[in-house]
From TrEMBL:
One of the Pfam families matching this protein, by short name: tRNA_U5-meth_tr
Binding site for S-adenosyl-L-methionine: 186, 214, 219, 235, 297
EC number(s) on file: 2.1.1.35
Active site: 322, 356
Biological source species: Amphritea japonica ATCC BAA-1530
Entry similarity comment: Belongs to the class I-like SAM-binding methyltransferase superfamily. RNA M5U methyltransferase family. TrmA subfamily.
Keywords: Methyltransferase, S-adenosyl-L-methionine, Transferase, tRNA processing
Keyword Electron transport listed: no
Protein name (record): tRNA/tmRNA (uracil-C(5))-methyltransferase
């Protein structure tokens, strides 16, 4: 991965520049005052992936020059990653260097940590993983006392669990989330908490029912369910849907149904264009819902045209976006029927040009 240069003395200046860029980019809309949510200046990133380099007996992490896959340098420190990752990442290489079985054809190490202090490490290989590897990896696991996963083509060996349990304090309440290795979770935990509190705040008087698309492991769902009578949340990735089911139980939320459907399929179901057996199996009668609000948190590609049309059907829209360009494009349509009431910038990715936006719109 291309790593940002972490320089806390530059943080405030860079964030004001990002804010100014967004204000300019969205100047075509009538904007409410921008709300700005800052990140921790170091140790803010809960998950990270590192390429490892082999040079004779040496083994080290490399960082690539942004935009140039051929130029890399040795990584000696990594102040952006969370404390649990920082404590282990270089000690891990010290352990692996003299261990032929564990180091041979290792090309990447992925870390997933939580605010609650858990850590899972995945070792990615260009070789099949056998019994001998597993025995050696068990000793590695014992040594560090954390969870390890070995991955190679078509193989995943789990020692001894492939998920972490996150615990976040959101507006005075502890929320519990199962986070599974190699599936989507918000990278910046501190900023994620602020996003959840903001979304909870903007929808506090919405009432009625909520429909949510791209719900992942139920990150927003768990926090927002209390503001609504009932919630339907949809997601395409099976692993995330299963985690969301777990999170419903873990948080004792009793007004939410999670469905495994793409946003495109769900839009068709809502419009009554197509019937889906999955809805019947889950005993969901969409016509019985009184949806006041829709929440979308799509991938970088934003909302497709059908989903934009569907989203415009609701009185209130919460749109969380990791790509200002697609947000801007989608807002061109949505602001024809809705007014921008709130606009928040969440600095999920300090020292880079990336950021997360949250907007709240209500029907004109
Ligand atoms: C930016 S993540 C947001 C997840 C969640 N809201 C959270 O805060 O962790 C986007 C999610 O959309 C899902 N996704 C991607 N394309 C989709 C589609 N066409 N239909 C439904 N979900 C999709 C991904 O699997 C991913 O979980």
């Amino acid at each position: 991965m291309a790593l940002p240069v972490v320089d806390p003395s530059q943080y405030d200046v860079q964030l004001s520049e990002k804010k100014a860029t967004i204000e300019q980019q969205f100047a075509e809309f009538t904007l409410p005052p921008m709300e700005l949510f800052e990140s921790e200046k170091t140790a803010y990133r809960l998950r990270a992936e590192f390429r490892v380099w082999h040079e004779g007996d040496d083994l080290y992490y490399v960082m690539f020059k942004p935009g140039d896959k051929h130029q890399h340098s040795r990584l000696e420190t990594c102040p952006m990653v969370s404390e649990p990752i920082q404590q282990v990442m270089f000690k891990l290489l010290d352990y692996l260097r003299p261990n032929e079985l564990l180091r041979r054809r290792l090309f990447q190490v992925d870390f997933l940590s939580t605010l609650s202090g858990e850590l899972i490490i995945s070792l990615l290989y260009h070789k099949p993983l056998d019994e001998a590897w597993t025995e050696e990896a068990k000793k590695l696991k014992e040594h560090f006392g954390i969870h390890f996963i070995g991955r190679s083509r078509k193989t995943k060996i789990v020692l001894d669990q492939d998920f972490a349990i996150e615990k976040m304090q959101v507006a005075g309440r502890e929320l519990v989330y199962k986070q599974v290795e190699n599936s989507f979770t918000q990278p910046n935990g501190g900023v994620c908490v602020q996003m959840l509190e903001w979304a909870q705040n903007v929808t506090q008087d919405a009432g009625g029912d909520l429909v949510e698309l791209y719900c992942g492991n139920g990150n927003f769902t768990m926090a927002l369910a209390q503001n609504f009578d009932r919630v339907i949340a949809t997601e395409i990735a099976k692993v995330s849907v299963n985690a969301a089911q777990y999170n419903i139980e873990a948080n004792q939320v009793n007004n939410v149904k999670i469905l495994r459907m793409s946003s495109e399929e769900f839009s068709q179901a809502l419009q009554g264009v197509r019937e889906f057996r999955r809805l019947k199996q889950s005993e969901v009668d969409l016509s019985s819902y009184n949806f006041s609000t829709v929440l979308v948190d799509p991938p970088r590609s934003g909302l497709d045209d059908e989903t934009v049309k569907q989203v415009a059907e609701y009185d209130n829209i919460v749109y969380v976006s990791c790509n200002p360009e697609t947000l801007q494009e989608n807002l061109k349509s949505l602001t024809q029927t809705h007014t921008l009431q709130r606009f928040a910038i969440f600095d999920q990715f300090p020292y880079t040009h990336h950021l997360e936006c949250g907007v709240y719109l209500t029907r004109k």
